[in-house]
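Hello forum,

I keep getting stuck at the same step: I have a sequence, I want structure tokens, and every attempt I make locally crashes halfway through. Rather than fight my setup again tonight, could one of you with a working pipeline run this one for me? It's a single chain of 100 residues.
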Amino acid sequence: MSPDPQSRMPVRQVADGALVEPDHVYVIPPNCSLGLQHHRRLLVLERQEERGFHLPVDTFLQTLADDLGPKAIGVVLSGTGSNGTRGLKAIKAAGGMTLA
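Reply #2:
Ran it on my machine without issues. Output:
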């Protein structure tokens, strides 16, 4: 794990079960999705496709909503298609905050 020269934050590939730490950047392993459970523990998930689309942002935000409920915050800055829309709806339904 070495700091990114632009942000000076450590950048690491996600390891299953890793605890989320402040001021770190996490990268999803190739051909996987990312989840969260048990109070901020990262999960490497098998890639799932819905109607031929890989929607990793939706997957992650859904697990964030499930794990943190009203403490969840989801931010989607931009992207292609609707990836993130369902995840933000899940956070909102759990009482969390969303920004797009």
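The domain at 2-99 is CATH 3.40.50.180 (Rossmann fold). If your local run keeps crashing, start a new thread with the error log.
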